[in-house]
Structure formats: C-alpha cells, structure tokens
Amino acid sequence: MLRAALRRLLAIDDPPERTALAFSIGVFIAFSPFLGLHTIMATVLAFLFRLYKIAIYTGTFVNNPFLTLVPILLASYAVGAVLLGRPIRLPAEDLELLKHPDLFSIDYWRELFVQSRDVLVPFAIGGMVLSVVSSAIAYPLTLGFLRARRRKPMENPDGV
Most CB within 10 Å of its CB: which of 11, 20, 26, 84? Predict the structure, then answer.
C-alpha cells in the first residue's frame, strides 16, 4: 500500500513544491495530538487548499496503528514532559488508574479526568512541537527527492 502511494506521489503533475507542501502538511497532521481526527483534518485541508490528496494522505499515514503510533505517542509525551520540566515517567497514581480501571464508577472517571492533566498536557505540547519540527524537516527532504526524481527519467513500474 505504501509503495503504491509513493509511486502515485512521484507520478503526479503538480509542481514538486506543491506536492512537498501537501506531504509536509500531512506529516504535521500525523504528529499532531488530535488522535482520531487525522484523516478528517487531511481531507478538509486537501479540499480547502486544493492539495493533492495522495500527497497529504501519504504524509498523514506516517502515523499508523501498526508501526509508528506507539513510538509517536511516547515521543510526544516525553518531549512535552521535558519541555514542562516534568519527569518522563508517569506518576504512580496515574499508572494505578490505568492498571485497575473501574469503568462503571463515576469516581473512577472523575479521578481519571483530574489525573489526565499529567498526561494530556505534556502529550499535547510535545505533539505540537513534533508536528512543527517533523513537517519542517519533511518539506525540504521531500522537495529535494521530488526534484531529483523529476530530473531522472521515469522507469516503467510495470516492467513493460
């Protein structure tokens, strides 16, 4: 799937700058802390700014549940915790809430909400920092790759 998306990405007629911009916006979305909204955000931005959908989706799916979701979540939390001067390790009471959920108790949910600030604030800040940094790195790398690829004659991917 990724290989097919990359082939389509390389074959589009948009200028490399525009394709690299769409891809880097997708990477920004991939690292953003708005879990569950990534595809919706990519779709809205693609239509709003008339960006090539394959490019923005390819960038967005850098964060996928099979390979990269957990490392991105952990890195987001760690970066945010460091920036806020907090320990990277979760407090014991937060871990206890996660280890022993009482899903049918209103007190559990109330405590989880109160304790979630220890996790959600660092995660949100770290995610936004990683979004900016990753997309800023993705744009020139993608642009350079696309320009080099355009200079090189395209081989037929079907082998015909």
Answer: 26
pLDDT, tens digit (0-9, with 9 covering 90-100), for 3-37: 665 566 555 677 889 999 999 999 999 999 898 89
Question: How many whole angstroms separate alpha carbon 155 and alpha carbon 160?
Answer: 10
Quick one: 124 exposed, middle or buried, by C-beta within 10 A (0-12, 13-18, 19+)? middle
pTM for this predicted structure? 0.77
CA distances to 23, 24, 135 from 31, rounded to whole Å, are: 13, 11, 9
CB neighbours of 158 closer than 8 A, spacing ≥ 6? none
DSSP string, 23-91: HHHHHHHHHSS-TT-HHHHHHHHHHHTT--HHHHHHHHTTS-TTTTHHHHHHHHHHHHHHHTT--SSPP
Which of 58, 34, 16, 42 has the alpha carbon at shortest distance from 123?
34
